[in-house]
């Protein structure tokens, strides 16, 4: 074999590893065009310089390999993996960061992958919150509370971020300065966030954090003790409820005419609203849940049947006569074929308002 300059050998070795990540020493020497002894000296020099080439004895041969994802300050992806990563990225809310990364992964095809249903061109608040959680650094965030008046100014607070929930509405779980209690924040209510390296990160035990998350429903935690509530749902509505429960770890018991559900939570009011939304298909079993369901349903019925409620319906173009009977009571629903098939009896009068 001919002699090569040292820099030429290094370039040839890197090119060979880009084509294939693992080589037998004899084959690599032939590919590069140098003697095995010279190849070994060059490889050892490259390792000393920080390139993570690994030596793996495989008698009677010697093998050299480079980690699959290695590139200086980068990660190597195949075309198929880059396309898959682009598909996952395209499902996120549009942002300048997301679009820049899509262009790097997919090139000219990136615009066709991007979703344009929502625009968010500002630097990612979510990314900064993720950085804060990963680095265990508190953040100063400016937050507009859902309970505040529409004209109220956002407040700034120092928060230690411990968990981020992803989905239609991203949420973070953290502890504010001066408090020992976990709290939930909607990410879309955060108007500004910055790392606060001078602050103290307030730690929370993992089992405490996990219990808080499990006891929450749709990002809400009442702050009280965790209690178990139960309700039953008849068929055919039970088939839908079984796959659309508000928590993942609910206990579901099959019954002859439906299902019985047990949920341990610190957000009973949210659970009660879910049960009320099922109408006559659901029945609360436990006392605490039943009381909340009755209170919410009674308030909704009162709002629907008061004169003020009737005026609002009239202003919205709703015919009051279709809602209320002649005595001011709620008119009974019209019988349908489905009701007749289920044997639902004919109501003699409407329910009292």
Mean pLDDT reading: 80
Distance between the termini: 99 Å
* Number of structurally distinct domains: 5
Named at the architecture level, the CATH assignment of the largest domain is 2-Layer Sandwich
CATH topology of the largest domain: Alpha-Beta Plaits
DSSP summary: helix tally:
13
CATH hierarchy class name of the largest domain: Alpha Beta
The main pleated sheet reads as: 5 strands, antiparallel
Q: Structural class of the helix and strand makeup?
A: alpha+beta
The arrangement of helices and strands along the chain is: HEHHEEEEHHHHEEEEEHEHEEHEHHH
Strand order of the largest sheet: 9-8-7-6-10
- Report the C-alpha radius of gyration, rounded: 32 Å
In terms of DSSP E residues, the strand content is: 15-25%
Number of strands: 14
Shape: elongated
Q: Enumerate the spans where pLDDT stays under 50 for 5 or more consecutive residues.
A: 112-123, 317-339, 341-353
The helix content is 25-40%
